[in-house]
TrEMBL record, chains A, B, C, D:
GO terms for biological process: action potential. This is Ion transporter. PANTHER family: POTASSIUM VOLTAGE-GATED CHANNEL PROTEIN SHAB, VOLTAGE-GATED POTASSIUM CHANNEL. Its main location: membrane. One of its GO terms (cellular component) is voltage-gated potassium channel complex. Keywords: Ion channel, Ion transport, Membrane, Potassium, Potassium channel, Potassium transport, Transmembrane, Transmembrane helix, Transport, Voltage-gated channel. The chain crosses the membrane at residues 25-44, 56-75, 95-117, 159-179, 191-213, 219-244. It is a multi-pass membrane protein. It is found in: Membrane. Residues 24-245 form the Ion transport domain. One of its GO terms (molecular function) is voltage-gated potassium channel activity.
Length: 279, 279, 279, 279
C-alpha cells in the first residue's frame, strides 16, 4: 500500500524508523537549530556581542521561529495519521495538549505573543523547554528509559535519603547559627543564611563565601562535612544497585522481546498493536 | 467487635494501617505543622521578619505548642490499647519513657518550663528533634529500614574506613603544619587549625580560607587530596555492595511474607501475633 | 629457527613477551626518558630554573630527541618483520601512518621543523602525546581494555547522563543569570559567564570566584547543587554496574583462553594466527 | 595445663582472644593513651595552651613514654611464648625487627635519643606511627583485610585509573598554562603551579586561590572538571565491584572455615597449626 503525502510527512517527523534517512536528516536539522538557538540565546546576553551582531542575531531568531512554526504546523496537520488522534478536530486538539506539543508551542508562542509576555527575555527562556524535544530521539530513548526506571524503582530510597540529608542540613545549619552568630554576625546573620552555608558544605561545593571561624563551629562543620560525604555515598550505592537490577531485568525482557519483533519493518509488534495492518 | 473511642483514637494516632484515611490526614496535619514550625523557627532569626511579624510568629508558636500538647495527651491516654502498655499507670509511665515520646515531650517542654531553660532560643532548638517523628511514617519505614540495615551490616567496614580516613587526616594535617607553619604562620598557626584545613580538603569541600602556598605544602596537599578522594570511593563501594546484598535478601524475604499477609486488613500476621483475634 | 637481527630488534621494541628482559629494560628506559621529558618540560616554564639550568635543560632536550629519533628509525626499519607490514616500502608507509607511529613522529618533528612551528613552546607540547605510548605497555593493557570496554558498553547511558547534566547546566545557568544579574552585574554579566559558574557548581569544584547573593539565587543554586550531586551518582552507578558485568564476562572468557595459550612462548595462539609457524 | 606468668602476660598483650577481658582492658588502655597522646601532641602546637599547661603536657608526655617503654619491654620479654620467636636471643632480635615492634620502638626512641634527633618536634611526629598499632585490634582486622584485599585485587585497574588521571592532569595543566599565562601571569606563572591548580580542580576541592579568567581557560577548565568528575567515578566503580566480589568469595570461605573452628577456644585451628596441642 503506497503511503499518502500526509503519511510520508508523518513518518519523517514523528517516525522512529532508523531506516528512514529523510527523518534522520530532519531530526538532525531541528536538533542543530535548537542548539544554535541556545548558543545565540546565551550570546545575546553578552553586551559586546549584542552591540555588534544585533541584526544577525535578530534575523536568525526570526528565521528559527518560522522554521519551528512550520514544523509545528506539519505536526498538527499530519497527526491524524496516528490512530490515537484520528479525528480531524478532536484528535488534533488532544494532540495539541500532549506535553511534547505544548513544549513545541511554548518555543514559538513568545515570539507571536509579545503582548502577553512583555518581558521578551524571560519569554525567550521558555524556548529552552524545546530542549526536551531531544529526549524523543530514538537512539537515546532506551538508555533514558533505563535511567528513569532506575529512579522510579529506587524512588523511596532516594526520597528517604534526601529526607535524611535535609534533616542533617536543617539541624546542622541551626546549630551552626548558634555557634557562629556571635563571632561573625555578618556571615551567619540568620538560619536561612546558615542553611545556604549548609547546602554549599553538604554538597561539597564549598565556595568559601561563608565558613566558620570559631573552634566549636569548625568542629561542627567538620562533622557535618564528613556526614554529608557519607550521605552522598547513599544515592550512589542505591543507583548502582538499581542499575544492576534493571540491567538484569532488561536482559531477560529483551530475550523475550526478540521473539515478537516484526520481520517486515523491524518495529516491536506488541508496542504498536494498531499498526499490525501495515504488513 | 466494635472498637471503643480509645481504640479508635489509638488507631488514628499510632496505627500504621494505610486504609485508615483519618489517620493519614492526622499524620499529614502533624507533618505539615512540624514543617511550618521549622520554617517559622528559621524565619524568627531573620531580624527584619521578626520585627514585622512578631505577633503572628508568636501566636503560631503558642497554637503549635497547644496542638502538640493535645497530641501528646492523646498518645499517653490511648497508649493502654497497646498490650505492651496495658497498665493504666505503669504502662503509661513506661510509654512516656520510650524514645519517641521523649522526643514529643522535648518539643513542648521548652514552652512550659522557661524557668528551667531561660535561654528560650536554645530550648526551642530541641523541638527540632520532633523532626524525627517523621521517620515513623509508615510508607517510608521500609526504605529507612533498608538504609539502617545496610549501615548495620557494613558497620565494621565503615568504621575501619573512617578510621583510615582519620589516620590520613591526622598525619596529613600534622605534616602540613610542619610544611606551612614557617611560610604562613597565620593560616597554619597550630595542628588543630591544620586539621580544619585537612577536613575541608579531604571532604573536597575546599572553602579556600586556608590553603598551602609552599611547593612542599602543595605537593603534600595534592597527595592528600588524591588519597582523600580515593578513600571517599570506599564507603560508596561498601554501601553499594551492601544495598545489593540487602536487596537480594529482602526479595527472598518478601516472597515469603506475601504468603502470610492477612487478606482482611492488609497487615502482616506474624508481625502482630497479638492482633490475631481481629478477624 | 634462529631469529635475524631485525627480528631480534623487533621483539625488543614491539614485542609484548614478558620473558624478554631486554625488551622490558628498553620499555622502562623509554618510559623513564618520557617522564623526565615531562618534568623538564614543566620546569623550563619556571623562570628561576630556566635562568640557572638553561644549558643542562637544552642539552637534555637535544639528547632526548636523538634517542627518540633513533627509536623511531628502529621501529620503521624493523616493522617489516610484522606480516601486516611485510612490504619494505608500502608496509613501512602504512606503518608510519598508524596512530602510535604518528604520536612518535609528533614527539620529534617539532625539534626538526622549527620553520613549520616557529612557536617552539607550543610545538613542544605536542611531545606530550608521546605519553600515550605508555598505554602500549603490556602489563597495563588488560586493565586498560577493561576500562575502555566498560566505557564502550555503557556509552549510551553515559552520553544520555551527560546530556541530562548539560540540560541542567544550561537551564540552571540561564535562570541564575536572570536571578542574579540585577544584584551583581559584575559576577553574572551574561549567560556564558553564568555557565562557568554552573560548571564550577555542578562538578562541586566551587572556586568561589562567582556565587549567588540574592535569596532567590541561593535557593536556585542550592537546588542545582543537590541535583548536580545526584546526577554525579549516575555515572558512578553506571560504571560500577559496567565493571561488574565486564568482570563476569572476562572471567568466563579467561577460562576459555587458558586452553589455547601456547606452552612454548606464553602468547595466546588465536590472537596471532599468523605466528602459528613459530613453534 | 596452667599457664606460666610469661604465657599469661603474652596472652594479655598479644592475644586476640575476645574472652580474655584483661587483654581487652589492656588494649583499650593503650588505645586511649595513644589517642590522648595525639590530642596533647596537637594541643602543644597551640601557643596559648602551651604557655598555660606546659608542665601538665610535659609530665603527661614523660608518663606516656614510660608506659609505652614498659609495654615495649613486656612485649620483648614475653615474645618467646610464640613458637616463631622461641629463642631467647635470636627470637627476640627477630621479633624486635618485625614492623609492629619497630613502630613501637619509634614511639619511644625520640624521647631517649634527643642527641640523634635534635629537632624534638619532628621526632615526636614519629610517634604518630604508633597509631598503626590500632590496626592490630582483632575486631577490626577482618574488615581491614577485606579493604586491603579489594585494593590488591583491583590494584591494576586502580593504577591505570590513576595513570589516566595523571595524564589528564599533566596535559590539562600544561594547556591551562598556555591559555592563562598571558592574562594572569601571577596565578599561572609556570606549569608546576598550573598543576597545583589542576590537582585542586580534578579532585573537586576547588580552593579558589587560582582559577581561570579568560574564556578559553574557562572552557578548558570546565571540560577538565567534567572529565575529572567522570574519572572519579572509575575508582568507585572498581572498588564497588571489588567489594562485591570479595564479599562473595569471603562468604564461601567462611562457610568452609566454620567446619574447622576449635570448639574449645573459638580460634580457627588451621590459622594456628602450632597451637593444636592446647586442647
Amino acid at each position: 500500500m503506497k503511503p499518502s503525502l500526509k503519511q510520508y510527512i508523518f513518518e519523517i517527523i514523528e517516525g522512529s524508523n532508523k531506516d528512514n534517512w529523510v527523518g534522520q536528516v530532519f531530526d538532525s536539522f531541528i536538533l542543530v537549530l535548537i542548539v544554535l538557538n541556545l548558543v545565540t540565546f546565551s550570546l545575546e546576553t553578552v553586551h559586546s556581542v549584542w552591540i555588534e551582531y544585533k541584526e544577525v542575531l535578530t534575523a536568525f531568531d526570526i528565521i528559527s521561529v518560522f522554521v519551528f512554526t512550520f514544523e509545528y504546523s506539519l505536526r498538527v496537520w499530519s497527526c491524524t495519521v496516528n490512530p490515537k488522534f484520528r479525528h480531524p478536530v478532536w484528535g488534533r486538539l488532544r494532540f495539541i495538549f500532549t506535553p511534547l506539543l505544548l513544549i513545541d508551542l511554548s518555543a514559538i508562542l513568545p515570539f507571536y505573543l509579545p503582548l502577553f509576555f512583555p518581558d521578551i527575555r524571560f519569554a525567550r527562556s521558555i524556548r529552552l523547554f524545546r530542549f526536551f524535544r531531544l529526549l524523543k530521539l530514538t537512539r537515546y530513548s532506551d538508555s533514558l528509559k533505563i535511567i528513569f526506571t532506575v529512579f522510579l524503582i529506587k524512588k523511596e530510597e532516594l526520597i528517604i535519603t534526601f529526607f535524611v540529608w535535609f534533616l542533617l542540613l536543617f539541624s546542622g545549619s541551626s546549630l551552626m547559627y548558634f555557634a557562629e552568630h556571635e563571632a561573625q554576625a555578618k556571615a551567619f546573620p540568620d538560619i536561612p543564611t546558615a542553611m545556604w552555608w549548609g547546602v554549599v558544605t553538604l554538597t561539597t561545593v564549598g565556595y568559601g563565601d561563608i565558613y566558620p571561624i570559631t573552634p566549636m563551629g569548625r568542629i561542627l562543620a567538620g562533622i557535618l562535612a564528613v556526614l554529608g560525604v557519607g550521605i552522598l555515598a547513599l544515592p550512589t550505592g542505591i543507583i548502582a544497585s538499581g542499575f544492576y537490577d534493571e540491567l538484569q531485568g532488561k536482559r531477560k525482557k529483551k530475550r523475550h522481546k526478540h521473539a515478537i519483533i516484526c520481520p517486515h519493518c523491524g518495529n516491536l509488534i506488541d508496542e504498536h498493536p494498531s499498526d499490525k495492518s501495515h504488513h
